[in-house]
Amino acid sequence: MTDQRVAPVAGEATSIGFEYVFPAIRGVQAGREFFVSMCPLRLIPKIFLFDDEEIAPEVRAQRVLNKARIPALMRYILDNPDDYVFSALTASIDGDIVFESVAGQGPGMRAGQIRVPMAAKFLINDGQHRRAAVEMALRENPDLGDETIAVVFFHDAGLARSQQMFADLNRHAVRPSRSIGVLYDQRDVVATLTRLLALKSPVFKQQVEMESSTLSARSRKLFTLSALHSANQALLQGLELEPDQAAALAQSYWEFVDTLIPEWRLVRERKMTAPDVRHDYIHSHGIALHALGRIGSTLLRDSTTASAWQKRLKRLSSVDWSRANPDWEGRALIGGRVSKSHNQVVLTVNYLRQTLGMRLSPDEQRAEDAYKRGDA
């Protein structure tokens, strides 16, 4: 796309002296013309606008920008300059669009360029957070400005049409499960070691659901990949290790935990079924794995040898993990159902710390005091 002065075309109005010119491919959807183009990133913040956030929702064509999402998207671009991927923006143009087919081809040809007056307004129907992240990334790395992003342009047919486009574009959008995200993430070191554990560790091999983040009542798996990933994140937090060291330490930790939870081994030996264990015990649920990860992180940081943390962790064998244990109600269970809210994770961690004779942090102690008062 270029900013340029364009000579008037015969028969056209000459009131507009400056135009945006986009290389484009013309298409038709639902009887409406649209255009697909490429736009340099440096021009994205300049021409694509947001609705005023102060305008009432019913007279806006977009949702309010969630500014908390933007730094993560910006870091994704800056931290992965050689392999970041952004999908196309979708925008409506409130102004005239003149399509010119490639020279020498008839009017029915789809390839060419579009001319849009600079006075026209461009409204993003889908991709406002990507647009904001691009703007922020360009401030830190202006060299990104020459890279391009695909843009799909529609004629602006008014507020009602723009609102309907937003609804339609997002109606069937389904966020992939956390497990599938972990399965395919090649950048996250913890995701990589979690996949290796799930595929090769004798504790988890063939016991981990790799795609879904929930298990059906009849699933033959004990764990989900997303739950194991969260547990490993908690386990390795604060430990500055090389990837190989982290993988070896995580495997060593979970293999020792396995010796203290006999039901995991009985499932592998087919003496118990995974559905029965998940129904009757909480130790294979995400909240328990996360709590075990946090307990392990403290032990690993406070111990100089493997035998030291293993000796302290052995008390875990005395924990009654069954749902029938009334100690879990209000901690891992709410009304008899497993709950993984932040507060329930903290209270579950507290229970395990107390069992192992470990000190609670100030935040954990406040949560424990509230629980004992009946405020949790």
UniProtKB/TrEMBL annotation:
Superkingdom, according to UniProt? Bacteria
Q: Tell me what this protein is called.
A: DNA sulfur modification protein DndB
CDD domains given in the database record: dndB
InterPro entries linked: DGQHR-contain_dom (IPR017601), DNA_S_mod_DndB (IPR017642)
The organism of origin for this protein: Kitasatospora phosalacinea
